[in-house]
Design goal:
6 helices; 5-stranded mixed β-sheet; single chain; alpha+beta; globular; 154 residues; Aminopeptidase; 5 strands
């Protein structure tokens, strides 16, 4: 593995991030990887950049080759005596880089960042159609302590 750096995503990274999101079987059904980039991705990127509770991160080699990505959100709330909850989403590692320990490095960075921001826990959801992801998260020490539910708006 070449020297890898985890840094905040830039607008120039968007095509590679969207490619990662669209790479898996589920992403193929919901993402639109085109050139030029669909405006909704650019709008979302601007909203994320403007929100201090959002960290959209990339793992890069050679400064601009995106090999992984994730989004870390910080949710302030009243329970846990006014705690902060960290939510990690959209974790992706480029197919040719899987099995090299990059996913563990992404999570280590996210865990350290969440603790530094004062979060008392970090949580995630994973689609039931991704059993290999669930095994990975359990191996990292996460526990399936809750049932997650979603309601999609049409």
């Amino acid at each position: 593995m070449q020297a890898m750096q985890i840094r905040a995503a830039t607008k120039a990274d968007l095509p590679q991030i969207i490619a990662l999101l669209a790479q898996d079987d589920l992403g193929k059904t919901r993402e639109e990887f085109t050139s030029p980039i669909v405006q909704s991705y650019l709008d979302a990127f601007q909203r994320i950049q403007a929100d201090s509770n959002q960290d959209l991160m990339v793992a890069v080699e050679d400064e601009n080759s995106v090999v992984g990505t994730f989004q870390l959100s910080f949710i302030p709330y009243l329970t846990y005596q006014g705690g902060i909850r960290a939510q990690i989403e959209a974790v992706r590692v480029r197919a040719d880089k899987r099995g090299e320990g990059l996913g563990k490095k992404l999570f280590q960075w996210a865990l350290e960042r969440a603790q530094a921001k004062g979060a008392h826990l970090i949580q995630l959801t994973t689609d039931k159609k991704r059993p290999e992801a669930l095994k990975f998260y359990l191996a990292l020490g996460f526990s399936a302590s809750h049932e997650g539910l979603k309601l999609h708006f049409k």
